Amino acid sequence: MSSRSRHLAVLLPLALLIACGLGGCGTINEKLADGMGDFIPQWLGGLPADAPPRPGTPQYEEFMREREKKRLEPAAAPKEEASQTSASGLSPVH
Q1: 85 or 72: which leads in pLDDT
Q2: Per-residue pLDDT at 21 exceeds 80
Q3: How many CB atoms within 10 Å of residue 36?
Q4: Mapped to the 3 state alphabet, what secondary structure does the chain carry?
Q5: I need a labelling partner for 8 at 20 to 30 A (CA). Which of 25, 57, 67, 81 fits?
Q6: CA 68, CA 62: separation in Å to the nearest integer?
Q7: Whole-number mean pLDDT of the chain?
Q8: Which residues fall within 8 angstroms of residue 26, CB to CB, at 6 or more apart?
């Protein structure tokens, strides 16, 4: 057996093993990512502190009730005095 065929005999199974391993990572991560995001700290890329709760939890139902209550409340009228600026108070731009 020549050295070229020996290298090929070693590299081919190694490449196949790496390809299968990378393919398996994609399916594992898809299933684990849903639950693992809750346990990873925010500084490491996890959920932020103000993220809404997950559907199916008791906190989610309370969150949706509060959200619906806020949606049904009438919008507060904006203050007309604060939104209008007088032109005399502004300095010219050069």
Answers
A1: 72
A2: no
A3: 11
A4: CCHHHHHHHHHHHHHHHHHHHHHHHHHHHHHHHHHHCCCCCHHHCCCCCCCCCCCCCHHHHHHHHHHHHHHHCCCCCCCHHHHCCCHHHCCCCC
A5: 25
A6: 10
A7: 77
A8: none
In whole angstroms, give the CA distance from residue 14 to residue 20: 10
Residues 2 and 25 in one domain: yes
- The better pLDDT of the pair 25, 93 is held by 93
Looking at the 3D structure of the chain, how many domains does it have?
2
Give CA–CA dist 31/51, Å, rounded.
20
d(CA 11, CA 55): 47
Residues 27 and 53 in one domain: no
Q: Which residues contact 47 (CB under 8 A, 6 or more apart)?
A: 37, 38, 40
* Domain range enclosing 56: 47-72
Altogether, the residues listed in the chain come to a count of 94
Calpha distance 88→58 (Å, rounded)? 55
